[in-house]
Amino acid sequence: LWAMEGTCFAETPESGPAEVIENPEVKSAFLEASNVEVTVEMTRLIEAQKAFSFNSKMIQTADEVEQIINTLR
Predict the structure, then answer these.
(1) Which residues of 3-42 are buried (b: 16+ CB within 10 A; e: fewer)?
(2) In this structure, what are the phi and psi dihedrals at residue 3, rounded to the nearest 5 degrees?
(3) How much helix, strand and coil, in percent to the nearest 5, is found in the chain?
(4) DSSP of 29-62, one letter per residue?
(5) Which terminus of the chain has a smaller tally of CB atoms within 10 A, N or C?
(6) Residue 37, CA distances (Å) to 4, 13, 15, 43, 51 in order
(7) Mean pLDDT of all residues in the chain?
(8) How far apart are CA 9 and CA 29, in angstroms?
(9) What is the mean pLDDT of residues 40-60?
(10) How far is the C-alpha of 67 from the C-alpha of 16, rounded, in Å?
């Protein structure tokens, strides 16, 4: 669904047509499925953190090399 204004949504080809539920029930003490694999998301987070750290060290090393080159001139 494509978000419009407020709580309105528009149909998209991916979402398909909207379904109307005649008598919806609200149940207490039931859990909703999160549809998220925690282990996969944690792995992705760790990979992103490691990549950021690696890139940060590469920039620091490049900066140090440039400083050495500038002092040798």
Answers:
(1) eeeeeeeeeeeeeeeeeeeeeeeeeeeeeeeeeeeeeeee
(2) -70, 130
(3) 50, 5, 45
(4) T-PPP----HHHHHHHHHHHHHHHHHHHHHHHHH
(5) C
(6) 29, 26, 22, 10, 21
(7) 87
(8) 28
(9) 97
(10) 58
